[in-house]
Please model this.
Amino acid sequence: MKDRNPVSTPMEQPGAKLSKFDGGEHVEASRYMSLVVSLCYLTCTRSEISSSVGIVSRFMEESVYSHWKALKQILRYIQGTMSFGMFYSKTEDYKLIDYSDSDWCRDIDGRKNTSGYVFLIGNTAFT
Model:
């Protein structure tokens, strides 16, 4: 992956519609699973990839080239953002703010909902 160009987003398009019925050449399952599990672990410190990793993890049973391509997009995003960090600033405003969102059945195979949330105190996210 070192010779690949980094990208600015973890998915090619927001809400990429991948399906378990996507046709194409099957990819090596053990390699695909290994990378997905590694990315799941990485979501503990890189929460911005959680949604994308959740999408590609749905295809660990039978992954095809389009799923592999989406997985490589996440890896290229990580490669391009390795120097990013978090900055927490001091604030006098300790107001609790919460945001949530859901996609309401964008999973075209199982029609499952995906949701997310973040809580902030002042300008600092803590979830």
About this structure: The mean pLDDT is 84. The CA atoms of residues 105 and 113 lie 5 Å apart. Residues 1-83 form one domain. Strands lie at 96-102, 115-121, 124-125.
